[in-house]
Amino acid sequence: MRSGWARFWFIAEPVWPIWFYRAGLCAWTAAFFLPRVPYLDELYGAWPVHQPAQPFAWLGLPVLPLVVVQLMVGALLVLLGLFAVGGGRHPRVVHAIILVLLGYLFGYDMGPLRGYGKLAAVQWGLLFFAPYDRRPDERAPRWGKRLLMLQFTSVYVFTVFAKTIQGQGWTDGKTLYYSMLSPQYGQHLLSRWVTFDLTMVKVMAWLVLAGELFVGFGLWVGRTRKLAMLACVGLHLGMALTLRVSLLFHALMLLHLVLFVSWPEPDRRA
Length: 270
Fold this sequence. Notes:
Layout: H1 2-10, E1 12-14, H2 16-33, H3 40-44, H4 66-84, H5 91-107, H6 114-127, E2 139-141, H7 143-165, H8 174-181, H9 190-193, H10 198-218, H11 225-242, H12 247-255
Antiparallel strand pairs: 1-2
Helix pairs in contact: 2-4, 2-6, 2-12, 4-5, 5-6, 7-10, 10-11
């Protein structure tokens, strides 16, 4: 058992997946902030209605002047580009600065998509423990990568428990049914063009629950990994076609699949 635990966490493997994941996370974060640049005064402005009761409010940190926020976002975009291609001579320092900037920008963001930013902040923190500071053709212990993989699959597993145990109307299909009819979340592409009755939606809800549970566990088993990856893509494609969920969410989740790809060993005979 001890040897199996050691293999799970500490066996050395190629660093390629972490390099691709890092570049993808940088691109996602840039895509998150670029459309917000013209609206920084609305997202971070010190209005009377502004409620900075976010992660750092208990520290008593003030809402910074707009010009400082603009400089922070500009610096963040530059550092993201640098980090995506390797991070220079001191990638850990670059990563630490990015984390500090994201701590404020995600923490005090009052936009409707701030939940995705908080989810990405967790992944940025876990990425710090991954061996991205090695060459991509090198091998390194995989425990940092395992943390990212566990966090990703736990999202699907705990989502199933939340939907079923807390009684959110998923087992009878009502939550999904009314979501698809809602002008805020539904009536989008297929849910606008196709009429779904409650029985059909109940079947769809159980398929979603089964698919999420299969993704959460199936990605860890070699025989089911490819099928679980297809199920993950199918789940997010189905959501994108029926519900008004930002493409940023789907992109952030699907990015993690690169961590489960089996990469070939480098040829060292040359």
